[in-house]
Specification:
heterodimer; A: alpha/beta; Fumarate Reductase Iron-sulfur Protein, Chain B, domain 2; FAD/NAD(P)-binding domain; 3 domains; 5-stranded parallel β-sheet; 19 helices; 16 strands; about 35% helix; B: alpha/beta; Elongation Factor Tu (Ef-tu), domain 3; Rossmann fold; 2 domains; 7-stranded antiparallel β-sheet; 7-stranded mixed β-sheet; about 30% strand; globular; binds flavin-adenine dinucleotide; binds iron/sulfur cluster; binds FE2/S2 (inorganic) cluster
C-alpha cells in the first residue's frame, strides 16, 4: 500500500495543453484545449482516493471528488459525469472558472508535497466529454407537484435553483432582464475563458427538463415580485447578481475612453463588439489600455484589451502581487500574454484632449501599512510620488455593488446597509413571504460556485416550503 | 419576436413610426419611459421613448429618426416583421402634477418623446402651451397630436417654411415674459435643450429635459449612460431619463455622445454600401 502510494505521487501533474501565448493574445478562442482521454486517466491516477477526502471539504457544493476521479481513472467517463451531476449542474463551467487553488485543489493532500490533483481540469474534461457524446441519462425528474416557481436572474445561482426545483417536480420559469441567459457567465466572463456555447448548452439542458425561460423581463419594471405572486407563482427565488458598477469618483471619469468593466465586457462579450462591424455594437479599441483592479474582472478586461488590438495592456493595482484576488491561473495567463502589472499604484485623475477623449492618467505610488479589517495590509499613498501615464483607454474593475432596480421596487424585502438582500445564510429565506435570494445579490460579488451553492441550499428550503408548507 | 402592427413614415422618410405588439410593456408603461429594442441577432440595443401605448390592444409606439446603422435597419422592418427583442418599460416615469401654466418645447424627433408628457400634463389639469420646431415644414412631426395634447400650440421652422420663422426659444422667451409659467419641459437635440435651460434659468422657471446618452442594458448595470447632474454622476437609464435642466452638464452629455463617431460611421458606410450593392 505504502509502496503504491509512493509510485502514484511520482506521476507529475499533467499540464493543460493551451494555445501559445503570443497567438492566443490576439484571438478570442478558448485558451486551454482540455485534456485528452489518456491525459485525463493519467491525471486521475494521481488521486490517492483518500478515505477522508479533504478536497471535498474545499468544494462549496461537496462534489464526491474521489468518486468521480476514480471513474475517470477507469475510463468510465459517462458514469463520472452522473456522479458530478449529483452535486453540480454546471461542471463544464466550474471546471473552468472555480478558484480551485483556494477550494478543492487547495485542500488536496497530494498538494501538500507537490502539485495537487488537477480536479478542475478533470471536471472540465468529464463535462466536455459528455457534452460532445451525450451518453449519460438525464437526471431523474420527480412527478409534477403542481407548484409554480419564478426564478429572477439566469446567472449560475438562478440556473441551479431552476434545475434543482424542476428535478423535484415543480414548474419553473426563469425571468431574465437581458436578451440572453447566463448572467455573468455570458456578459462578463470572456469567450476565451468560457465559450458561450457551453453556457447555452447548459441552459438548453434546463429547457429540456421543462424549465421556461422568459428573456427581456426586467423584474421590478416589466413585472414586480408581487405581480408574479398574483399570477399564481407559489414561491420566488431572486438571484439578480451584483450588477452595479463602481467608479472611482476621480476627476475626468466621464471622458470618452473611460469604461466600467461591466460596460467594457458587456459590449465585448454579450454584444460581441469584438466582431464589429459584423455585429453592430461598437467598442473603443485602445492602443495603451489601463485596467484598474486586481480581480478576475480586471484580468478579463486587460486580456480582452489585448485581443482587441492593444499595443500595451497594463493592470494598475493599489496593493502588491500577494494581495491579487484573481485566480492564480488568470494572473499567470495574463502575464504570459504580455499584460503588464503596476503594483502599489493608484490613479488620481484622468486627463483628456480638446475633444474630450482620454489621453493620460495621473497616479500615485502606494506603500503597504498595517492590515485592515479584511486582513490585507492597507495601502497608503506616498506623498509627492505623482507620475503620469499616456493612455487612451481606461477600464475600471474595482468591484461591483448591489443593483437597486429590483430591491427598490419591492417593499417588504429587507436589505443590509450596503443594499444587498438580507437572507438566511443556511436557507436563503428573505424577510418577504415565499421569497428566497442567493448569489451575489446576497453576498456581494463572489464566485460562481458559491452562487450555485446558495442556489442549491435555497432550492432545498423552497422544496420543503412547497411540499410541506409553513 | 415583437411584431410591428402599424408603420408610418414621416418627415420625408427621415422619421419612422412603428406600433409594436408588446402587451406586457404596454400594460405597465407610463409617460416618459422608454424601451430598448434589438432588431436581430447581430443587432445593437437601441433605446427609444414610447411615443404612445395602447394597453387594451397591447401595443407600444415608437418614433425614431434614422441617424445610423441600427435605425437604418429598423427602417427596413415592415408590418408583419418584428424586433427580436424589446425590453421595458425602462426609466422613471415623468412626474405629472398640476402646477398651473406649463410650456412643452420640442425640437426635431424630440417632439415624439414630448408628446405623451404633454398629454399627461394636460390630463392632470395644467394649462399647457406647446412649442414645437423643425428645420423646415417637411421635417415637422406630430403637429396634430401636439395640438390635441395642448391648449395652445406654436410651430416654428428654422427656414420659415411654416409657422414662426425662427427657433423655438424665440416663442419660449415671449411666453416666459407674458405668462406666469410654472414649468418648462424641453426635449430635442442637445444644443436645443441646453439653450432652453439657459433661458429659463434667467427667468428662474423650473425646467425638465430628457437626456439621450448612449445606453446598453438600460438597467443601471454598465454605467455607460452616466451623465453629470448637479455635479453628481447619475445613470440616465434608471435615475432619468428626465432631469432638472438647470443642473445638467450638457457639455459632458454632448461629448459622450461622440464616443463612437468613428466606429458608427464605419459601420453605417459599410451597411449603406451593402444596401446599394443589393
Ligand atoms: C468579469 C467577471 C469574471 C469573473 N470570473 C470569475 C471566475 O473566474 N470564477 C468565479 O468563480 N467567479 C467569477 N466571477 C464572479 C461570478 O461570475 C459571480 O459571482 C456569479 O456569476 C454570481 O452569480 P449570480 O447568479 O448571483 O449572478 P449573476 O451571474 O450576476 O446573474 C444575475 C442575472 O440576473 C439578471 N438580472 C439582474 N437584475 C434583474 C432583474 N431585475 N430582472 C431580471 N433579471 C435580472 C442579470 O441580467 C443576470 O443575468 C466573475 C465575475 C465577473 C464580472
Ligand atoms: C432614453 C432615450 C430615449 C430615446 N428616444 C428616442 C426617440 O424616441 N426617438 C429617436 O429618434 N431617438 C431616440 N433616442 C436616441 C436613439 O437611441 C439614437 O438615435 C439611436 O441609438 C441611434 O442609433 P444608430 O445605430 O442608428 O446610430 P449610431 O450610428 O449609433 O449613431 C449615429 C449618431 O447618433 C448619435 N447617437 C448614438 N447613440 C445615441 C443615443 N443613444 N442617443 C442619441 N444619439 C445617439 C451618435 O452620436 C451619432 O452621431 C433616445 C435615446 C435615449 C437614451
Ligand atoms: S465545483 Fe469547483 S470547487 Fe468543487 S470540485 Fe469542481 S472545481 Fe473544485
Ligand atoms: S484530497 Fe486529493 S488525493 Fe485525496 S481524494 Fe481528494 S483529490 Fe484525491
Ligand atoms: S445603460 Fe447601462 S447603466 Fe444605463
Amino acid at each position: 500500500m505504502a509502496e503504491e502510494k509512493k509510485k502514484k505521487e511520482k506521476i507529475p501533474r499533467q499540464p493543460m495543453p493551451a494555445q501559445e501565448a503570443k497567438v492566443r493574445a490576439r484571438n478570442f478562442e478558448e485558451v486551454p484545449f482540455g485534456y485528452s482521454s489518456e491525459t485525463a486517466m493519467k491525471e486521475a491516477a494521481r488521486c490517492i482516493q483518500c478515505k477522508k477526502p479533504a478536497c471535498v471539504d474545499g468544494c462549496p457544493v461537496g462534489i464526491d471528488i474521489p468518486g468521480f476521479i476514480n471513474l475517470v481513472k477507469e475510463g468510465e467517463f459517462t458514469k463520472s459525469i452522473s456522479k458530478i451531476w449529483e452535486m453540480n449542474t454546471l461542471p463544464a463551467v466550474c471546471g473552468r472558472v472555480c478558484p480551485q487553488e483556494i477550494q478543492c485543489e487547495g485542500k488536496c493532500i497530494v498538494g501538500k508535497k507537490g502539485a495537487p490533483v488537477a480536479i478542475g481540469n478533470l471536471e472540465r474534461f468529464v463535462a466536455d466529454y459528455e457534452r460532445e457524446k451525450r451518453l449519460a441519462p438525464a437526471p431523474e425528474k420527480a412527478a409534477s407537484t403542481g407548484k409554480r416557481v419564478a426564478v429572477v436572474g439566469s446567472g449560475p445561482s438562478g440556473l441551479t435553483v431552476a434545475s434543482d426545483l424542476a428535478a423535484k417536480g415543480h414548474e419553473v420559469t426563469i425571468y431574465e432582464a437581458f436578451h440572453k441567459p447566463g448572467g455573468v457567465l455570458v456578459y462578463g466572463i470572456p469567450e476565451f475563458r468560457l465559450p458561450k456555447d457551453i453556457v447555452f448548452s447548459e441552459v438548453a439542458g434546463l429547457e429540456s427538463m421543462g424549465v421556461n425561460l422568459e428573456m427581456n423581463a426586467v423584474i421590478g419594471r416589466t413585472k414586480t415580485l408581487d405581480e408574479l405572486f398574483e399570477e399564481g407563482f407559489d414561491a420566488i427565488y431572486v438571484g439578480v447578481g451584483a450588477g452595479l458598477p463602481t467608479f472611482m469618483n476621480i476627476e475626468g471619469e466621464n471622458l470618452i475612453g473611460v469604461f466600467s468593466a461591466n460596460e467594457y465586457l458587456t459590449r465585448s462579450n454579450l454584444m460581441k463588439a469584438y466582431l464589429f462591424p459584423e455585429y453592430d455594437t461598437p467598442i473603443i479599441k485602445g492602443k495603451n489600455v489601463v485596467t484598474m483592479g486586481g480581480g478576475n474582472v480586471a484580468m478579463d478586461s486587460a486580456r480582452t484589451a489585448l485581443r482587441l488590438g492593444a499595443e500595451r495592456s497594463i493592470i494598475v493595482y493599489r496593493r502588491s502581487r500577494e494581495e491579487l484576488p484573481a485566480r492564480t491561473e488568470e494572473v499567470h495567463h495574463a502575464e504570459e500574454e504580455g499584460v503588464e502589472f503596476h503594483f502599489l499604484t493608484n490613479p488620481t485623475k484622468f486627463m483628456g484632449d480638446e475633444k474630450g477623449r482620454l489621453n493620460s492618467m495621473e497616479c500615485l505610488k502606494m506603500e503597504l501599512g498595517e492590515p485592515d479589517a479584511s486582513g490585507r495590509r492597507r495601502p497608503s499613498a506616498i506623498e509627492g510620488s505623482e507620475f503620469q501615464m499616456e493612455i487612451d483607454l481606461a477600464v475600471i474593475a474595482i468591484g461591483a455593488g448591489a443593483n437597486p432596480l429590483l430591491t427598490q421596487s419591492t417593499e417588504d424585502l429587507k436589505l443590509n446597509k450596503w443594499g444587498y438582500i438580507d437572507a438566511d445564510e443556511a436557507t436563503g429565506k428573505t424577510s418577504k413571504k415565499a421569497v428566497w435570494a442567493g448569489g451575489d445579490i446576497v453576498t456581494g460579488a463572489a464566485t460562481v460556485i458559491l452562487a450555485m451553492g446558495a442556489g442549491r441550499a435555497a432550492a432545498d428550503s423552497m422544496h420543503e416550503y412547497l411540499t410541506l408548507g409553513w | 419576436m415583437f411584431k410591428i402592427v402599424r408603420r408610418e413614415e414621416m418627415a420625408e422618410g427621415t422619421v419612422v413610426l412603428n406600433e409594436i405588439d408588446a402587451p406586457l410593456i404596454a400594460k405597465k408603461a407610463k409617460p416618459g419611459q422608454f424601451v430598448i429594442l434589438k432588431a436581430n441577432e447581430t443587432g445593437e440595443r437601441i433605446p427609444l421613448t414610447m411615443a404612445d401605448t395602447d394597453p387594451e390592444k397591447g401595443t407600444v409606439t415608437i418614433i425614431y429618426q434614422i441617424v445610423g446603422k441600427s435605425t437604418a435597419i429598423f427602417k427596413t422592418l415592415q408590418v408583419g416583421d418584428g424586433y427580436q427583442d424589446v425590453i421595458g418599460p425602462l426609466g422613471k416615469p415623468t412626474h405629472l402634477e398640476k402646477l398651473g401654466t406649463v410650456v412643452c418645447v420640442g425640437g426635431g424627433t424630440g417632439v415624439a418623446v414630448l408628446h405623451p408628457i404633454t398629454r399627461g400634463l394636460k390630463e392632470v389639469g395644467n394649462e399647457v402651451i406647446g412649442i414645437i420646431g423643425a428645420r423646415n415644414k417637411e421635417l415637422l412631426i406630430l403637429e396634430d397630436h401636439m395640438k390635441d395634447a395642448s391648449h395652445e400650440l406654436n410651430v416654428c421652422t428654422d427656414d420659415g417654411s411654416y409657422g414662426h420663422h425662427g427657433f423655438v426659444t424665440d416663442i419660449l422667451k415671449k411666453t416666459l415674459e407674458e405668462k406666469d409659467v410654472k414649468l418648462v419641459v424641453g426635449i430635442g437635440p442637445v444644443p436645443m435643450m441646453c439653450f432652453v435651460a439657459k433661458m429659463t434659468k434667467e427667468y428662474n422657471v423650473k425646467t425638465m429635459v430628457s437626456l439621450n446618452p448612449i445606453m446598453i442594458d438600460g438597467t443601471g448595470m454598465c454605467g455607460g449612460c452616466r451623465v453629470s447632474v448637479g455635479g453628481e454622476t447619475k445613470f440616465a437609464c434608471v435615475d432619468g431619463p428626465e432631469f432638472d435642466g438647470h443642473e445638467v452638464d450638457f457639455d459632458v452629455l454632448m461629448n459622450r455622445l461622440q464616443s463612437y463617431t468613428n466606429e458608427e460611421q464605419e459601420c453605417y458606410d459599410e451597411y449603406c454600401t451593402m444596401q446599394t450593392a443589393k
